[in-house]
Amino acid sequence: MRDATATQPRAVTSRRQVALLFSILLPLLLVFGSLYIHRTSFVVNGQRVFSLWDDAMISMEYARNLSEGHGLVWNAGGERVWGFTNLGVTLTMALLHVLPLNEFEISLAFQILNLAILGCILALVWRVADTAFPREPWIPLGATVSVALCAPLSIWCAQGSDAGFVALWLLLCAGPILRAERDGTRWTVGTFVGLAAGVVIRPDALVFAVPLWLVGLFSRPREWRRHLTLGALTMASVSGALIAFGWLYYGDPLPNTYYLKATGAPLAAILTTGLSQLGAWIPRMAIAMILAWMAIRSDRNRPALLLFALPMVAGLAYHVAVGGDWMSRYGSRFAVPALPLFWILPSAGVWRLLGRTSLTSAMKPAAFIGAMLAISLLSNPAGTTREWFDPSQSTMLAKANAKNFRYASYFRDHTHPSTTLALHWAGIPKYFSHRYAIDVLGRSDAHIARTQMHPGRFRPGHSKWDWDYIVNVRKPDIVIGESRGLRERGDFREAYYLVRGPRKGFYLRKTALGKLLDDDVAFEDLQTGRRMASPLDPNRALPQDTRASDREKP
Fold first, then answer.
1. Number of H helices, E strands in the chain
2. Environment class of residue 152 by beta-carbon count within 10 Å: exposed (0-12), middle (13-18) or buried (19+)?
3. Helix spans in 363-488 (H)
4. In which band, very low, low, confident or very high, does the pLDDT at 552 lie, cut at 50, 70 and 90?
5. Which of 332, 365, 389 is the last residue of a domain?
6. Is residue 33 over pLDDT 80?
7. Which contiguous run of DSSP H or E holds residue 534?
8. What is the 8-class DSSP label of residue 64?
9. Domain-embedded: residue 102
10. Of 10, 136, 467, 540, which alpha carbon lies 20 to 30 A from 73's?
């Protein structure tokens, strides 16, 4: 009796200490997040510009067109191509475009929304871990410390990707599952619907939903028929609805990015690239993974703990299966959403390991927090910790974003509204220029996405192009940048001039001279390599874009 009364005050004291530390941790995360968001911005011509990473700006373009009544399309009035993979996120962006904000404020608003999601993730990690380990309050704190220090998750959130949305959904699904396991109750229909709803955020969220569903299926052998039926029915219904949407709206059941990334490339190239990318990150995660295995092994009679590990395993396997990601230095964008759930297990593993030592009860919490700090920072991909925490470090694609914005603002101010741009970077130049655009690497072009990968040039999402189609069929007025042998083509050199100006250079189609509204540029003949007198007519009329969106000067 004496031991019980002595243990209870210690447990209350521990909870108070943990709650105090958490109340400090959350504001610190939000402060660093706010500073990082400010660092992603850049100043052009005295205007501070906020922008998401380039891929997210593609979704922003679809969202803006929807909010303006043009539909979920990349080009207003253009063909319908399903060039985004995150319907729920894109619809959220569309709602932001309805608000009385300019295009710079909308990007900032979405970054702030992602920062709020990051804060919710931290709070939910605490809650989920506390549900799983209610008598060990330090385990939830260790998990939240690890998530707060998880630089790849924080960076992807602040850059405007959908990783935070998926991570939040995973945690919201895990909570009811754990409570049902704890209380010995059935999964509600809402739990099954919540799992299935992940495909609305991203169709490949099924990669995470199926493992959680299987954990419940195998941990409840007496209810396997109900579990199997409801899970299969809800997932098939929601997935079927998404497929039907694709068929009815785009004439295609799958996003265009599926054909771009998952078809037309040798399986060996896909798997080799996916594995090699993980080879740079997984060794850094080795200690955390061993600790996670130890936590599961110490509670082998609790199969529900697998729901913390299996989404991470599934995300890594999916990364390999699709050939990885073109931005691999930030860890696997496909596995990062599973990290908040995963970090609960290493936290439990460290706490159990320290329980076997001779440390006093006063020293154990300090040793535990120190260990979690070290393991968490070690597990981050190389360079990401400095990028997130060091104000002097450049942020993801910062220079490329600023350069692309300069091009966008130039073409917005110095080309006719009917000008067509051919883009390698398809997000920022399209969104801020307000011009019709062609995606030469195929994310928003159905023809290019269905071509074959060019031999020896596999790079996830960047392995397909068709210069015959671009130069002779689509015939863009302006091509920004050249790569992959474009300039060596005779038909391209014959059809285009190289135009040079201060801090810019691009290719102008000879039949589109009237669409360039800038006399302060130099021309070069691509066939001879010589500079030439400007072919622009100095007496031509300079039409102005009268659209309201283009009258708003940045």
1. 25, 9
2. buried
3. 363-379, 384-389, 398-414, 428-433, 446-449, 467-469
4. very low
5. 389
6. yes
7. none
8. H
9. yes
10. 467
pTM score: 0.92
Backbone phi, then psi, for 428, in 5-degree steps? -65, -45
* Number of domains the chain contains: 2
Crossing angle of the two packed helices 363-379 and 286-298, in degrees rounded to 10: 130
Per-residue tokens: 126: 């605490």
Give just the sign of the alpha carbon dihedral 418, 422, 428, 431: positive
Tokens of 402: 């600023």
Residues 375 and 424 in one domain: no
Distance separating alpha carbons of residues 177 and 372, to the nearest angstrom: 26
**Can you give the residue range of the structural domain that contains 339?**
2-40+82-389
Nearest to 462 by CA among 424, 430, 427, 499: 424
Closest CA to 249 of 90, 93, 96, 110: 90
* Contacts for 479-486: CB closer than 8 Å, 24+ residues apart: 479/421, 479/422, 479/440, 479/506, 479/507, 480/407, 480/421, 480/422, 480/423, 480/424, 480/425, 480/429, 480/506, 480/507, 481/424, 481/425, 481/506, 482/507, 483/424, 484/454, 484/457
What's the average model confidence in pLDDT over 74-99? 95
| CB of 340 closer than 8 Å to CB of 169 | no
Same domain, 415 and 297: no
